[in-house]
Amino acid sequence: VQLQASGGGLVQAGGSRRLSCAASGRRISTWPVGWFRQPPGKEREFVAAINWNGDLTYYSDSVKGRFTISRDDAKNTVYLQMNFLKPEDTAVYLCAADQNAYSGGRHLTQRETYDYWGQGTQVTVSS
């Protein structure tokens, strides 16, 4: 399976952006999906995750209340709606899929859980 993240760009602080993670090669409707980000010069960090049917979502404390993860299985795509963006949200955003079908739980916040990664999309928030 291939994952393609898109929707990044330059946005002013306080603005919004929606990222998409489109899967190809197989359907991912039974797979959990996560979003991670890597700020310049820093480690990759967890942002948000959604379980296979969307009943469970997880967020890092830094984005909780501002970001929303969702999925559209008809389009084989997972979204990350980002509102009230801050300069510290500047990073390359990557999506990842866990081939352990139907799973859910706090392990979805860990990088090691995921089997497939997309290439990432740059989000730059100006002050």
Characterization of the model:
With about 130 residues, the protein is mostly beta strands. Helix content is about 0%, strand content about 45%. The protein contains no helices and 11 strands. The strands form 2 sheets. Strands 2, 4, 5, 6, 9, 10 and 11 form a 7-stranded mixed sheet that branches. A 4-stranded antiparallel sheet has the order 1-3-8-7, with no helix packed on it.
- Encode the helix/strand succession as letters: EEEEEEEEEEE
Give the overall shape. globular
- Name the poorly predicted regions: none
**Percent range for helical residues?**
under 10%
Rg: 13 Å
Counting DSSP E segments of at least 2 residues, the number of strands comes to 11
Output the structural class: mainly beta
Strand content: over 45%
Q: pLDDT average, as an integer?
A: 96
How far apart are the termini? 37 Å
What does the largest sheet look like? 7 strands, mixed
Based on the model shown, name its key terms.
four-stranded antiparallel beta sheet, mainly beta, 11 strands, 127 residues, globular, 46% strand, 0% helix
